[in-house]
Task: structure prediction
Amino acid sequence: MENYMKLEIAALGENESFARSAVAAFALCLNPSLSELSDIKTAVSEAVTNCIVHAYANRSEKDKILIECRAEEGAQGSILHITVTDGGCGIEDVEKAMQPFYTTLENDERSGMGFTIMQTFMDGFSLDSSREKGTKVSMFRRINAAPSNKGEIKERVDA
Ligand SMILES: Nc1ncnc2c1ncn2[C@@H]1O[C@H](COP(=O)(O)OP(=O)(O)OP(=O)(O)O)[C@@H](O)[C@H]1O
Ligand SMILES: [Mg+2]
Result:
């Protein structure tokens, strides 16, 4: 059976580290290496930070982020699928937003590298956004651990 999890969190800064650790903990079911796990955490961190920083300009207690993960196990290795969705302001020009160094928060010490980092650290990435409705980041990462090492690696990786 395919494994999955869904997680809804308030769009608050203090939940960013929780979100990346929760995804990493879920990813353990696919027996990742430390470097695969670290890449996944980096990408999730960027996606969740974007929801917190950009999606909800007028803060409200209803601001939320939905994180969904699906673990796909196959003979040639496994794949972790992740989506991060917000119901915020949306992105006007998705192509532009994905360009390196493009940011709408220049004065806020943002470097405009979040989407570039997600694309670099993951094996697949796509961005879906509509104005006033929200934004969905979909990405996946291949996990190539050999099934026979499952027990050993799990002991090494402690999310
Ligand atoms: N969830 C979102 N909702 C609305 N706008 C977003 C969202 N995510 C990103 N954006 C827009 O896309 C731009 C580019 O995002 P990106 O993560 O690449 O850079 P950044 O967040 O500005 O800077 P950095 O990630 O380097 O701190 C943002 O400046 C913002 O305008
Ligand atoms: Mg960002």
Q: What stands out?
A: Strands lie at 3-10, 64-74, 77-86, 124-130, 134-143. Residues 46, 49-50, 114 surround magnesium ion (ligand 2) (CB under 6 Å). The chain has five helices and five strands.
